Amino acid sequence: MPSAEPSAADALTNFSARTRLLIVAPHPDDETIANGLLIQQVRAAGGEVGIVLLTDGDNNPWPQRWVERRLYIGAGERRRWGARRRAELLQAMQRLGVPATALQQLHWPDLGVTSRLLSTHRAAVAALTTTITTFRPDIVVAPALGDRHPDHGSAHVLARLALTQMPSAPALLTYMVHGPQSGAPTLRLEGSSAEQAAKRFALSAHHSQLVLSGGRVQRLSGRAEQFSVVPRPDGGLPWRPPAVLHPWLRLSLVDAAGAHTWRWHEAPLQRSDAGGYQLSSRHGEPVASPRFARLSLAVPSPWIFDHWGWCEV
């Protein structure tokens, strides 16, 4: 009796020579920290791995000041640092068995993925759609929506919108770097001792990220790699920001049609029966693509991570 065709779940967890995996990496080192074991297992099965790098990781001033013994970081210095980080990424890829030709680069500004999504929405989605289509993956892995680094959460939104542009979209799994790994993952990789050693060796190529934050980066990389399918949205907005912050809050709404941002008191919101907030009926109607909301504070801060971030509505 002939064997049954593999199910979609099997394709996500059992790799073969037909597997084509594309990793969406906001910065150099995300490919190793969150995906180093996954890359090795796909390659060991004979599959192909591609990486699309959204930014060069160039806006990284404190490690650059330490390594280069300088205080001033201008545009030229950032370009040089970005080139250094791209070289580190290529070395890490080589150590994981991935050729340099597997890398596609968008060269977006580091810490600028959110502004790229909100200000040049159509062009940003089209650029990522093109990279996915070029590689022809059957599995895409991208950052989780709840990742607190703004480039990561916005990378998730872009990946979701890009996949809606494809007539036959590949499966999507998400990974978490900056935030707790919660829930039951679809795929969890502990790795053999040899795979773990190879991952550590690849991570060591990212020397610029280890000089000041080596302990933190190694802890993140040392966790089991967990990949999840996208959960169903809850519907309402999860935030109840204090009234004292309302004058400085901004609400953004993004879907396939475009991106909009409002001041909190001008946003299309209404109170829910439970006392929270939800989009008003005009903006809460079903749409043909996923829809995402982001709450942010329009106040300069040295803290780069999102407090509220994104949710799907």
UniProtKB/TrEMBL annotation:
It comes from the Bacteria. The keyword ATP-binding does not apply. Its EC number is 3.5.1.-. Coiled coil: none annotated. It holds the Pfam family PIG-L. InterPro entries: GlcNAc_PI_deacetylase-related (IPR003737), LmbE-like_dom_sf (IPR024078). GO terms for molecular function: hydrolase activity. This is PIG-L deacetylase family protein. Keywords: Hydrolase.
